TrEMBL record, chain A:
<keyword id="KW-0663">Pyridoxal phosphate</keyword>
<protein>
    <recommendedName>
        <fullName>cysteine desulfurase</fullName>
        <ecNumber>2.8.1.7</ecNumber>
    </recommendedName>
</protein>
<comment type="similarity">
    <text>Belongs to the class-V pyridoxal-phosphate-dependent aminotransferase family. NifS/IscS subfamily.</text>
</comment>
<dbReference type="InterPro" id="IPR000192">
    <property type="entry name" value="Aminotrans_V_dom"/>
</dbReference>
<dbReference type="InterPro" id="IPR015422">
    <property type="entry name" value="PyrdxlP-dep_Trfase_small"/>
</dbReference>
<dbReference type="InterPro" id="IPR016454">
    <property type="entry name" value="Cysteine_dSase"/>
</dbReference>
<dbReference type="GO" id="GO:0044571">
    <property type="term" value="P:[2Fe-2S] cluster assembly"/>
</dbReference>
<dbReference type="Pfam" id="PF00266">
    <property type="entry name" value="Aminotran_5"/>
</dbReference>
<keyword id="KW-0411">Iron-sulfur</keyword>
TrEMBL record, chain B:
<dbReference type="GO" id="GO:0016226">
    <property type="term" value="P:iron-sulfur cluster assembly"/>
</dbReference>
<dbReference type="GO" id="GO:0005739">
    <property type="term" value="C:mitochondrion"/>
</dbReference>
<dbReference type="InterPro" id="IPR051522">
    <property type="entry name" value="ISC_assembly_LYR"/>
</dbReference>
<dbReference type="GO" id="GO:1990221">
    <property type="term" value="C:L-cysteine desulfurase complex"/>
</dbReference>
<comment type="similarity">
    <text>Belongs to the complex I LYR family.</text>
</comment>
<dbReference type="InterPro" id="IPR008011">
    <property type="entry name" value="Complex1_LYR_dom"/>
</dbReference>
<feature type="domain" description="Complex 1 LYR protein">
    <location>
        <begin position="9"/>
        <end position="65"/>
    </location>
</feature>
<dbReference type="Pfam" id="PF05347">
    <property type="entry name" value="Complex1_LYR"/>
</dbReference>
<dbReference type="InterPro" id="IPR045297">
    <property type="entry name" value="Complex1_LYR_LYRM4"/>
</dbReference>
Length: 454, 88
């Protein structure tokens, strides 16, 4: 209070010389006092959102916007050509069928497959279910073992859990600190009983790229089918199912700037991979996925794949430029920032950072001008730290302070700068409030503290 | 780019593409379209094969039509501006 009143006097004497009555003097003093006091707090701790408008989109791993070129390809099939692609008796059916077949070729082209090896599904979740349950159940009489990893997407882990209930044995491979599996551990896990290995190409939370070609080679030599969930990878990094020895691959439409509600499954014909279909019905998609193929969505997926094929190098260079710029900005201003996942062997469009001594949820709240997530969208409702971060051995406190920045084709340099600047400001603000941060600044090693139990 | 397409044709198409791209109401689509058109023309500057030049020219023309249609659709379903557009 003493220092405050000392600061007050020059202001008061400048503005209100001698003539001021005592009553006025007191009211002015309290007013100025409040202003000074609140300003001081404001700068440090207050959340003042002076900006208005829709938040910036930084969650490209959850979903991506539909590319205008994709929408343009889809619209005719929503407006004019409504035929059922499986109607063989009239022109309405034929035009839809040829559109679907063209889309199948476009998808196949992107991954170096034959169009006959592509089946349309409702999304990567369904593709994963068909691959894992379908293969496991078909080969169940002879083989009852499946190998996967601890950092797979929920739908893969859940499918495996379901199979465990049916009497299958499942091995969940651990990953190293950088998020990548050890190849010799995979090799040791394979037994003559193993029917399928399922390992995702790019992780949705930490963006880590697995050595798919090496895994494919191991699986081929041991004669085990290899499934990969490539929802985050297709259209972003080059994939060739033959060169990488992939037997089954899941593709999602809305992660490649296509529409939601469509996906594809690549399923090898030579040597033939056989599956037990999950959905019974009219026997569409070679009996593997019954149900009418949604023509506009399939056309959209096809167009998205063709654009991705054409733009892959351009988009990837842009991702690298943006993520490098973002990381440089963050690292130049903030210390104690940890990047989760391997810095080299990962997709640059997915930057998962842990800001030590900051609670992730409060940072997300503070950054309300930016659409961000602490992990996958499926688990974003819970406050629990993600199982992926736990699998790579992240400390509990760091796992709680992680945020995923997802960059995409339509992200701009200005957006990256804005987000980096906001992040820096709010991390500094939140750390300023944290007693732990204060202790670290004083040189106390937090890990050595014995917290008393109450 | 000797035969097939003339330099003035290319320049005119470039200007049209940039003008139309500028009309995207969506900030992200607009920025991408402008950046992509500029970079694509820069990239194709060294194309000497007349056949390839015609192919690229036609691809650009197709995209001009797409942009025109998508700008219209974007205008029909306008949203609130992004926070970054209000800053400047």
């Amino acid at each position: 209070m003493f220092s405050l009143s000392k600061n007050m006097f020059p202001i008061l004497f400048k503005n209100y010389p001698r003539k001021v009555s005592l009553k006025d003097y007191i009211s002015v003093l309290t007013l100025e006092c409040q202003k000074l006091y609140s300003n001081k707090v404001d700068e440090k701790f207050a959340l003042n959102h002076e900006d208005f408008g829709r938040p910036l989109y930084f969650d490209a791993q959850a979903t991506t916007p539909v590319d205008p070129r994709v929408l343009d390809a889809m619209l005719p099939y929503l407006v004019s050509y409504h035929g059922n692609p499986h109607s063989r008796t009239h022109a309405y059916g034929w035009e839809s069928e040829s559109a679907v077949e063209k889309a199948r070729e476009q998808v196949a082209q992107l991954i170096g497959a034959d169009p006959k090896e592509i089946i349309f599904t409702s999304g990567a979740t369904e593709s994963n279910n068909i691959s894992i349950k379908g293969v496991a159940r078909f080969y169940a009489p002879r083989k009852k073992h499946i190998v996967t990893t601890q950092i797979e997407h929920k739908c893969v882990l859940d499918s495996c859990r379901a199979l465990e209930g049916e009497g299958f044995k499942v091995t969940y491979l651990p990953v190293e600190q950088n998020g990548i599996i050890k190849l010799n551990e995979l090799e040791n896990a394979l037994t003559p009983e193993t029917s399928l290995v399922s390992i995702m190409t790019i992780n949705n939370e930490i963006g880590v790229k697995q050595p798919i070609a090496d895994i494919g080679a191991i699986c081929k030599s041991k004669k085990v089918f290899f499934h990969t969930d490539a929802a985050q990878a297709v259209g972003k990094i080059p994939i060739d199912v033959n060169k990488m020895n992939i037997d089954l691959m899941s593709i999602s439409g809305h992660k490649v700037y296509g529409p939601k509600g469509i996906g594809a499954l690549y399923i090898r014909r030579r040597p033939r991979v056989r599956i037990e279909p999950i959905q019974s019905g009219g026997g569409q998609e070679r009996g593997m996925r019954s149900g009418t193929v949604p023509t506009p969505l399939a056309v959209g997926l096809g167009a998205a794949c063709e654009i991705a094929d054409r733009e892959m190098a351009y988009d990837h260079a842009w991702m690298e430029k943006l993520s490098q710029r973002f990381l440089d900005k963050i690292n130049s201003k903030l210390s104690h920032v940890i990047r989760n996942g391997d810095p080299k062997e990962s997709y640059p469009g997915c930057v998962n950072l842990s800001f030590a001594f900051v609670e992730g949820e409060s940072l997300l709240m503070a950054l309300k001008d930016v659409a961000l997530s602490s992990g996958s969208a499926c688990t974003s409702a819970s406050l629990e730290p993600s199982y992926v971060l736990r699998a790579i051995g992240t400390d509990e406190d760091l796992a709680h302070s992680s945020i995923r920045f997802g960059l995409g084709r339509f992200t701009t340099v200005e957006e990256v700068d804005y987000t980096a600047e906001k992040t820096i400001r709010h991390v500094e603000r939140l750390r300023e409030m944290s007693p732990l941060w204060e202790m670290v600044q004083e040189g106390v090693d937090i890990k050595t503290i014995q917290w008393s139990q109450h | 780019m000797s035969s097939g397409v003339t330099k003035s044709q290319i320049l005119s198409l470039y200007k049209q593409l940039m003008r139309e791209s500028q009309k995207f109401p969506n900030y992200n689509f607009r920025s991408y379209a402008l950046r992509r058109v500029r970079d694509a023309f820069k990239e194709a500057k060294n194309v000497t094969d007349p056949k390839l030049a015609v192919k690229e020219f036609n691809y650009a023309k197709e995209n001009l039509d797409i942009i025109k249609r998508q700008v219209l659709i974007g205008e029909m379903y306008r949203t609130e501006k992004l926070v970054i557009e209000n800053v400047r």
